[in-house]
UniProtKB/TrEMBL annotation:
This protein's name: FAD/FMN-containing dehydrogenase
Residue ranges occupied by any FAD-binding PCMH-type domain in the UniProt entry: 39-207
Listed PROSITE patterns: FAD_PCMH, OX2_COVAL_FAD
InterPro entries: BBE, FAD-bd_PCMH, FAD-bd_PCMH-like_sf, FAD-bd_PCMH_sub1, FAD-bd_PCMH_sub2, FAD-linked_Oxidoreductase, Oxid_FAD_bind_N, Oxy_OxRdtase_FAD_BS
Alphabetically ordered keywords of this record: FAD, Flavoprotein, Oxidoreductase
GO MF entries: FAD binding; oxidoreductase activity
Source species: Actinokineospora iranica
Cofactor: FAD
């Protein structure tokens, strides 16, 4: 794939309002900087789109020259090596408008959840956002999006009402279940395979306050805590969404004393049922001695305190498994292969799924594996240990849980991987077949291939 010439770059820069950077030009690296610092995309050209017309011009420019198009907003979800082609950076498309009367928000492709929460909450409304407010709305939602209240609410993708997307022909389409049910189905789950989304409209729910937080236990109680998590989640109503994390804290003064230098389990909860929440969570306090018990009523804007994830850019690599069940073999594998004595430091997140996540929304989507009852995620920093060691450690865990693995979640594949690595693990077979058939209609030349690619079905 030939890189655009200097003249071609000048032509493109003339067509758009935002900045255009060729490889090696001033501003190129800064435009590409994002949350993930361990992997570095190297497109031939980066377009900092200032509006939807810029996205159209960039897609047309790439398509006419046979160049692949990649897209990114915050850089949280870097997954596929980008070497050459045109990368469209959406971070300037960050406009958010909340429509309280219709209970929805219109959200630009570069917006983060925190911006939506800040504008929606004063109206007593909340979006289907996840554990960290700094994650981008569009990338998260197009791959499904499991939020803090996921069992109560379903996937974020289930609440999308309309998508504005620039397709491979350079057209900007307003896609809804009524205007184009097939493309609307494919976009919600097929992520970046069908175009560059410039904005979307998503439903908001009336929520005044939530009840939630986290309880920490020492890792010496890992067996008891994970077994209780399995038994408790088997009975938990769908009004509560819970997860358990495992993490080792370095002995640094920035961490609270009970966690400093310890390997711990962090059980997190969120529910809108303020009345029932305390009673549902109470039994956890008898499982083992607690290191920190920080559960209570909170405003949704403070929900980032439930997971307490780092909000600074850093390097990480990781993967996920959508699980049918949590038999003892799975719990033993988590503790033995990703716990306190793992070969490399692992951050584990085991989330309870089911509830509304298991139900197809009124307008079905390509989000797969709704039958999964849990998702197991693991991530590690490759710094100091190396990517090979990290991947080998994670692989041992994912091999051990394979008999209970239904598939993987595109949102929780972190770090660059060969584009074809997981395709068949990200979608159920009928979904993948339908996506391929629709890809042949909407992107027959596979312009959008710098991703976990759905290849266009061959015409007979
Ligand atoms: C700290 C942290 C917490 C997280 N918490 C959750 C959580 O609670 N629930 C959950 O489901 N996920 C969660 N995630 C995963 C997150 O949803 C994915 O990493 C997602 O890809 C991030 O999207 P982004 O736009 O922020 O990142 P980016 O890296 O900018 O984008 C990721 C990918 O999304 C696609 N994409 C982005 N914008 C567009 C567009 N305009 N058009 C088409 N495709 C586009 C592209 O494929 C791009 O490569 C979390 C991730 C992190 C790092």
């Amino acid at each position: 794939m030939a890189s655009p010439t200097r003249d071609e770059l000048a032509f493109l820069a003339d067509q758009v309002r935002g900045p255009v950077f060729g490889r090696g030009q001033d501003g190129y690296a800064a435009e590409l900087a994002g949350f993930q610092t361990g992997f570095h995309p190297r497109p031939a050209v980066v377009v900092g789109a200032a509006d939807a017309e810029d996205v159209r011009a960039a897609v047309r420019f790439a398509a006419e020259r046979g160049l692949a198009v990649a897209v990114r907003s915050t850089g949280h979800g870097v997954t596929v090596p980008v070497d050459g082609g045109v990368l469209i950076s959406t971070k300037r498309l960050a406009e958010v408008t909340v429509h309280p009367e219709g209970r929805y928000a219109r959200i630009g492709a570069g917006a983060r959840w925190s911006a939506v929460v800040a504008l929606a909450e004063p109206h007593g409304l909340v979006p289907p956002s996840g554990s960290a407010g700094h994650v981008g709305v569009v990338g998260y939602t197009l791959a499904g999006g499991m939020g803090l209240l996921a069992r109560e609410v379903g996937y974020a993708a289930d609440h999308v009402r309309a998508v504005d997307v620039v397709t491979a022909d350079g057209d900007l389409r307003h896609v809804t279940a009524a205007t184009d049910p097939d493309l609307f189905w494919a976009l919600r789950g097929g992520r970046d395979n069908f175009g560059v989304v410039t904005s979307l409209e998503i439903g908001l729910r009336p929520v005044e306050r939530i009840y939630g937080g986290g309880i920490y236990f020492g890792s010496e109680h890992a067996e008891a805590v994970l077994a209780f998590f399995r038994d408790w989640t088997a009975r938990a109503p769908e009004t509560i969404t819970a997860s358990v994390g495992m993490i080792g804290y370095p002995p640094l003064p920035v961490f609270p004393e009970p966690l400093r230098g310890r390997h711990v389990l962090h059980v997190r909860f969120a529910t809108t049922d303020i009345a029932e929440g305390p009673g549902l969570i109470q039994p956890w306090r008898a499982v083992a001695p607690t290191l920190i018990d920080a559960v209570g009523e909170l405003a949704y804007r403070d929900a980032g305190s439930i997971y307490r994830e780092p909000d600074f850019a850093h390097a990480y690599d990781g993967n996920s498994a959508l699980l049918s069940d949590l038999p003892p073999e799975v719990l033993d594998a988590i503790i033995g292969l990703a716990g306190a004595d793992a070969a490399v430091g692992c951050v584990v997140d085991l989330r309870h799924l089911g509830g509304a996540l298991a139900r197809e929304p009124a307008a079905p989507s390509a989000v797969s594996f709704r039958a999964a009852n849990y998702i197991l995620r693991v991530l590690s920093s490759p710094e100091g240990v190396g990517l090979a060691e990290v991947r080998a450690t994670h692989q041992r865990l994912f091999d051990a849980v394979r008999p209970w693995t239904l598939g993987r979640s595109l949102n929780f594949v972190y770090g660059e991987r060969a584009a074809a690595d997981f395709r068949s693990e990200l979608y159920e077979k009928p979904t993948l077949d339908r996506l391929s058939a629709l890809k042949a209609v909407h992107d027959p030349g596979n312009v959008f291939r710098a991703n976990h690619n759905i290849e266009p079905a061959r015409r007979r």
